[in-house]
Amino acid sequence: MAEDRLIDTLSKWQELYCREFGNGIKKYDAVGHGKLGTSLKVVNQPKVNLFGQTYVMQIYAEPYWEQVNYGRGPSSGGGSGVLKGKIEEWLRLPNVKDKVAKGERNSDKVGSWSNAKYASVAWVIARKIHREGYDPRPFVSDARRKLDRAMLQDVSEAAVEEYGIKIEQIIQKIQ
To answer: In this predicted structure, what is the pLDDT of residue 166?
Structure first.
């Protein structure tokens, strides 16, 4: 049935977008802990409004995907400390501290950090981001540029097939 083709088409594209987003995260080395890449999920059945029925194509990711994709400009104040707190949380994730400490000259890079060390490293990183901003890593934008046109074509064809079946059903009811 055409309705199934439309749903199947949207589902296929969700998976393609997730795969392409993951490739972009790796390409831009935006991996960190890996949480962003593993958070890419297709949770709901795709939906689109068509002849009184609704289908939606949604892909879920960690809420900070936008900051990674679009970057962040410098800011003029010290801020409220939210950025520093988030960075400190991030530093405490497995493997992140080791990546950040790579190349550090002192001996505590191998051992555990004290709470003060986490706080001071987070403060330095936050200060740099406030001063210089954060360059975009456009993993979503790149994927959309690559896939959007073909996805729209494919979904349009599936919708036209759905439309044709609906018209046939109306004609049959009229006769």
So the answer is: 66
Q: How far apart are CA 51 and CA 61, in angstroms?
A: 30
| Whole-number CA gyration radius for the chain | 23
Cβ–Cβ < 8 Å for 14, 44: no
> Could you identify the residue written with the tokens 């790579």?
102
Cα-based torsion angle of the residue sequence 109, 114, 116, 120 in order, rounded to the nearest 10 degrees: 20
Q: Can you read off the two tokens belonging to residue 14?
A: 């969700």
Which pLDDT score, from 0 to 100, does residue 45 have?
A: 59
Structure tokens at 104: 């550090």
Cα–Cα distance, 161 to 150 (Å, whole number):
17
Per the DSSP assignment, residues forming a β-bridge with 41 are: 60
Q: Are 93 and 35 in contact (CB under 8 A)?
A: yes
Nearest by Cα to 142 from 27, 3, 9, 4: 27
Dihedral of CA 154/158/163/168: which sign?
A: positive
> How many other CB atoms are found less than 10 A from the CB of residue 167?
11
DSSP-based three-state secondary structure for 61: coil
pTM reported for the whole predicted model:
0.71
* Average pLDDT score over the chain: 80
